[in-house]
Amino acid sequence: MTTAKADLDSDIISLARLALAGRAQDIQLLLQRIARKTRVEKPELSSSITALLREAPTKETPLRRMAEVAMPVDSDSRLHLLKIEDNIEFDHAPVLAHDVASMLNQLIDERGQLAALDAAGLDPTRTALFVGPPGVGKTLAARWLAKRLNKPLMILDLAAVMSSYLGRTGANLRQVLDYAKQADCVLLLDELDAIAKRRDDRDEVGELKRLVTVLLQQIDDWPARGLLLAATNHPDLLDPAVWRRFEMKVEFPMPDRDAIEELVGRLLRPYHENAGHWAKVLAVALQGKSFSDIQQSIERTRRAAAISGDALETYLQGLIQLDGLAKADRISLATMLVGSGLSQRNVQKLTGIARDTVRSHTQSEAVPRKRKGG
Q1: Contact, 72 vs 177, CB < 8 A?
Q2: Mean pLDDT computed over 19-39
């Protein structure tokens, strides 16, 4: 008997044992391994198993299929360990850097071309790591992916997972990941560095180091039909083995001027007829701010204007910050504010740019426009 046949016989026996025990999740993991092992010598068998795993045997939604499985809870606090978002809605598509959008679109396209991937002996990307400072859209991107893939989003609440009894944290983590594996979902592990720190960190106790091992095992066994995402603000804290396990790394930058202009325009356009102009102004004034900070600032000004009854422009002017702006940017800002109808005196007070300077730049910009029009 060849080694390959002996291995397959052993897998069939293991499969029967798991089926008789009713361990559906372990059956799926074993079938995934059999499909991988037989891909070369028995491609038809491998393709058939892969197709079965990808097909939903029921027309029920993923969450409805999970109704009979108890939601994982912390054994101490009895709090749910997962936050589940279904039927996700957006007021507008997220503003994403070109490279980020390209990678997210690849994840979506792969799941729309499963047959082509299978014919090439490939699985879709199962795991992706989102890296970037707070407020740049990592969680928003996870929601966007879940919506585009028509899957529920499950978010791991790390504060709940970290049990007051540290020895139970590993059990909490296993509960969450085992539960998510059974659902056709997108799982987001937020603030991954809280549980996946470098194992050579002398300040960390043994239990936290063992959590890394648990996480590595779970990532390796993640089903191809699901999508495991993780996000961190501190990639330098991650254990190198955890970093390597993720098939795709997506770096989310701070928004540049074009991205800020696009976001502000989308936020103001339904409520302000001069939204495009203010988007250009605030794209200069809000440099260095995250998407989250910018959105909160815009919403705060809209609330203030709604309560006071004053014009929204009055509060938008209050968002202009000069700290760190180069003189050329401040002059550009002053010129745009004059163009929005503010007096040169008020623009000087707002930006610190002398009226003569504002006047000369306003005139120099007006001359080319006049010549172009004439």
Answers
A1: no
A2: 75
